[in-house]
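Technical annex B. To support the medicinal chemistry partners, we prepared a structural model of the target in complex with zinc ion, based solely on the information shown next.
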Amino acid sequence: MKKIVSILVIGLSLTALWGALIIVGASYDTVDEDNPYGEETLVVGVDASQAERNVTPVVTDSLEYWEENSDQHADYPIEYQLDADAEDPDVRIVWVADLEDCDSVSDPAIAGCADLVEDRAPGTALVEVETGLSQEQARETLKHELGHTLGLRHGDAPQDVMSAT
Ligand SMILES: [Zn+2]
């Protein structure tokens, strides 16, 4: 009888252990461990109420650029879901007359600023782009600032995008 109980206990323990391993495995499986956002698809909100022109082409070009290049340069893949009016986006892009609110990186030379997101993403990573830029300047600025939200610093590759000037 004692032997049967022992076998039963061992069997149940193994079942529980197996279940725990499956749960742990599943949670590690879904997102790259280098990804500070903890999810591969990032929702992007846009506030272009101060912009002088339609910013959608600039935004979609910049997001596409990082969907193609994040894996190589930030070491984790990313997909963006553009939802301009999202209340609680992972990344918020704001057109402003004067840069003011970004926490960590300011780029007055290229008229933008951003939160540098490295170990752990804030609830919403902020990117600001100044109004009054040409379409091409705005595109280069936004690509650069989005690079900071992927943990890239000045001088990191790709250098044509992440140079400070
Ligand atoms: Zn910068």
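Notes passed to the chemistry partners:
The pocket of zinc ion is lined by residues 105, 107, 144, 148, 154, 164 (CB under 6 Å).
The chain is about 40% helix and 20% strand.
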